[in-house]
What does this fold into?
Amino acid sequence: MAEVKIAAEITASVWQIQARPGDQLAEGDTVMLLESMKMEIPVTAPQAGRIAAVLVAEGDQVEEGQAVALLEA
Amino acid sequence: MRGPVLIANRGEIACRIAATCRRMGLPSIAVFSEADAEALHVAAADRAEPIGPAHPSQSYLSVPALLEAARRSGARMVHPGYGFLSENAEFAEACADAGLTFIGPPPAAIRAMGSKAAAKAVARRAGVAAVPGYDGEDQSDTRLLAAAQEIGFPMLIKAVAGGGGRGMRSVASAEEFPASLAAARREAMSFGDSRVLVEKLIPRARHIEVQILADTGGKVLHLGERDCTLQRRHQKLVEESPAPGLDAALRAELGRRAIALAEAVGYVGAGTVEFVAEAGDAPTAERIWFIEMNTRLQVEHPVTEMVTGLDLVEWQIRVAGGEALPWAQDAVRLEGHAVEARLCAEDPARNFLPSPGRLQALALPEARPGLRIDTGVREGDTLTPFYDPMIAKVIAHAPTRAEALTKLAAALDRCSASGVRLNAGFLAAALRSPEMAAGQVDTHFLDRARAGLLAATAA
It folds into this structure.
């Protein structure tokens, strides 16, 4: 079991968290929606796996490259 | 009654409104969030009032903060710009209750056009053809599916309260419908209203809209149309007036429809009636349908200003102050051709991902006759994730469409920035494409042609 960091690709605020710890995701499934410059940017699972932890809360500000969730793949 | 104008907005539109106020001899008051204390729009106005934290919900969308700023500054009028509270009937009412003149339509007109379903009901009353579909109160799965099957697939599900390109999804088949409906309702909830409507999808569509201007005496004029077909993510990137291939008879017919809708809701001020037209050969009256009305100034209003010679903000202020429109419809003439491009901090190569950051360098061409630059930022500013990514609107005006496209593309070649990604090269390549030259584009053209246009940018 490898732990994969899921990172924000842009400086943004966390708008909607859609996956909870324990959820099983397929590659490409949405983990959360970020909002930046009036655009919704989905953060998706880079590969199939189980969400081990969500590291941010709705309304948080995140920086480009910051880990926002951990995936057990 | 005219008096000091509070500009309840930010960025380029706040700067643009302040410029007209200055020309008219009206004091202007900017408002700013904590992120905008050093912003250009603050310097553009005669004075400025702080209204709270960076997040729009706590500043530019805060009615109490804006009313308090108006009270402190002695404002008599409020210009909402576009976005933020510009189409919020409660804000218009709150301004009136505070003794302020809201520069925009009456709250009842904002409400009547506020939801996509309500607007379609107005169109039925006014005898204007809207996109065929179902926008009723029965929101059961079975009723909506039946309506979708009657329309035929592919079709669209739209959030009744949606806007700005959000809350819309296309559905390819009846099998996909239940899952898409559930997703559309979840999305719709972000607008505070889970209701949806279903309508026919025009697979190859052009977006054509008519600018109207109305006074308090019931006179409504149209100022011609704009073609806003070049879009990404359902958001406009390039707009032009007149619309390619639209003849005088069709212009008059669309103007007639727009005026009928404005009259049906007692409209006052500047507004835009949006239509969808089938792309392909020259548009015809039977293949153009009403979609919605925007009860405010539009981002792309400068193209109309350049072909009519009118200052729309000036006339918004004049009619809000009770002045009558002094012209007849046949005195409104469209001279030449104008095209606007929205220069944005975004990366076309990464699916138009926005690019917040510090503008370490910014070069824009100088404005001159036939070339207008509306901007709200300058070198050294930081573009935060809180606000939209637009850096400037670049607008070219020339005797012919071909000349205007060439001039705008050349102006975009002279735009550059460091610190953020810029879409200037991509826009210039789109303006130079053979499809654009021929007027053979539809609303999905930029998505389809993106790879080729990016290659042209790199060459």
